Every structure is written in structure tokens, then in C-alpha cells.
Amino acid sequence: MGATQGAGVWWASPATFTVAAETQSIDITWGDEAALNEEVGDDYKLWVIVTDAETGCFNYRYLGIDPRTNAFDAEITVVGLADASATGLSLSTDNLDGGNACIALSQLIAYEFNTEATVDDGETYAYFRIALNDPSPSSYSWDFSASFTGFAAENAIEYSTDGTTWNAYTETAVNTVPNTDLEVYIRVRTDASTAAQGITAVISDLQLGTFGALVPDTDTGNNTKTYTINQIPTVGEFTGF
What are the sequence ranges of the domains in the chain? Predict the structure, then answer.
């Protein structure tokens, strides 16, 4: 249906059907005119007029429609470093947005103060958050995949929807998240005992419901984040006693 503006009102040329059953459907594609109308806050009205072919009698009514822009924004940010005891409470607010960090002793997965063994002196988890912002429509699940490069992996990449229960994650595997969860946490276990670890995280395969390209990610510039974990000084062997 073509749309035209007159006297401040958008109206569409009518579509006419011969109804052979009790139901009839019509497909409407919203174009630029709908976006303009959305800005001024007016609703469209889809008018339906039914005319009896034999008697000429008719009836009509309309359906009010408020067109919305269907889109979402998925982003990945750095939460920070922590050991395996970090929970949803401590991960609720990002404290970093990339950059460099030194490992605090409380953030190490294991640390032996009374031994010469230094194998675990630099092992820690780097925590990332993937957030789905302003999804429209908001009643659908969403998909993502994540990949990580530039670090020494120590066994595990895990993800969680609440920051408490963690599940193994296979890089680039597509995960479907329910619409009730707008955040996903991913932690990467790494070792910075002998060299700094520059972790680059990339999210992709982003999709809302099954809409695909019809509902796009509005900002792809926040789908990559790099986080450098500085090398931790290692205490070596004691001698002379």
C-alpha cells in the first residue's frame, strides 16, 4: 500500500479483496513514512471496511497501530579480575572498560605463601559481561557466540547468566539466552606468571529471536574488547639458609 501525507495525516491507498472465507490477511511493510510518524507520536489506523456484494450494505472499524523500530544493541565489556569465588553481586557493575590491570593476590586462583612452588602464582580469571540493550521486540530469546584470543589458556572458558552458576563454554558455539536474561558473564582462566596476557574478546552471531537481519544490532563498534593482564612478579627460589 502506498502512503501519502495530507493535512498532517498519513493515509494509505486502500487494498481491496474479494473474501471467499470468513478471514482475510494483509501484509504491511513499514517504510520511512512510518519512522517519521513514530517521531511525532501518532498512531496509524488500519481501517477495515466490509461490503456485502449482494446488498451493498457495509460495516467498518479500525485497528490502532503504533509502529516501532525493531533493533537491539549487544555489547561486551570488561568486568575485571577475580578468583573462582566471584558472584553475581560482585559482578553486577563493570569496573573496567578494557585497558590494563595488575593481579591482586586476592584475585589469584591459588597462591602458596609458604612454599617455593610458583606454578600458580599468576593464574586468575578475567571476567567479561555481554549485555543485550534495549531489545525491540523484547519478548524473544537472543543468540550470541564469543571468541577469545591472545592469552595462555588454563583449561577453562565458562559462562553464566547470573554470575553464580558457571557452565563450560566452547568458543564460537552459539548460545541461546532466554529473554528474561539480558546479561551473560564469561570468565577466561589464564596465567600471567611468565608474560602479560592480552585477551581480545569478540562477540558475533548476534540475533534476536529468529528475525535475523530484520532486527539488526545497531552498534557493532562495541562487540570487541581487549583487556591486558600485566605479568605478576614471581618470587623465586630461596637460597643461603
Answer: 3-65, 71-229
